[in-house]
Specification:
Elements: E1 7-9, E2 25-29, E3 34-36, E4 42-43, E5 48-52, E6 58-60, E7 66-68, E8 78-82, E9 87-89, E10 95-97, E11 99-104, E12 116-118, E13 121-125, E14 128-130, E15 141-145, E16 150-152, E17 163-167, E18 171-173, E19 191-194, E20 198-200
Length: 202
């Protein structure tokens, strides 16, 4: 953890081992703090929480390319959350599995390079995100909240089994999608627009 303008420089690390009990590994920045971890290329079978809060806080994971985020011992998933006016550098990250993403306001987090996103959810709180690298969004969950929430998913060809919640005047359209299946599952799936939100599959 880096906080109150502090710098946690972990540039010498090239890997982070998972906790054998499946507990969460925390990588966090608060109050303008900076965490540097640029030489780790993968998180494997490891529940990792990456979290940045307060203006100027930043986390450098610029070398991270893939993230398998489920801890087998505990079943805990990983998460990445960037709040307004923070930066999380994951510009090389292309593959995420079991990693929930939450992006708020003007948070700076590159996402257009992501080509695989599975077994997780995306929550955009008044945040505009580019996920144009995705062609499939199957059995996932997407929430858009607020007038400034938007997402570029124009290359998607399959949204089967996914849930969508568009609220508080956010808008989401899939003009390229012409079929939808909830899937052969007992899990709850929904297409929902509320509080002025618009979900358009016309």
């Amino acid at each position: 953890v880096a906080q109150r303008g502090g710098l946690l420089d972990l540039s010498g690390l090239t890997s982070i081992s998972a906790n054998t009990f499946g507990y969460i590994t925390y990588i966090e920045a608060y109050g303008g703090g900076q965490v540097k971890l640029p030489n780790v290329t993968t998180f494997t079978d490891n529940a990792v929480r990456v979290y940045a809060q307060d203006a100027g806080s930043s986390i450098d994971l610029s070398g991270l390319q893939s993230w398998s985020g489920l801890a087998p011992a505990s079943g805990i998933r990983s998460s990445l959350e960037a709040k307004d006016s923070t930066t999380i550098n994951v510009g090389q990250l292309t593959t995420l599995d079991n990693v929930d993403l939450t992006l708020r306001g003007s948070a700076a987090v590159a996402t257009s390079q992501i080509t695989a996103f599975t077994s997780a959810s995306i929550f955009l709180d008044n945040h505009a995100a580019n996920f144009s690298g995705l062609t499939s969004f199957v059995n996932q969950r997407l929430i858009l909240d607020g007038i400034d929430a938007s997402i570029d998913l124009h290359n998607l060809t399959n949204i089967d089994g996914s849930s969508f919640d568009v609220k508080n005047t956010a808008q989401l359209a899939f003009p390229q999608i012409h079929s939808y299946s909830a899937g052969n599952t007992t899990a709850y799936r929904y297409l929902q627009a509320e509080s002025g939100g618009v979900l358009d599959l016309s």
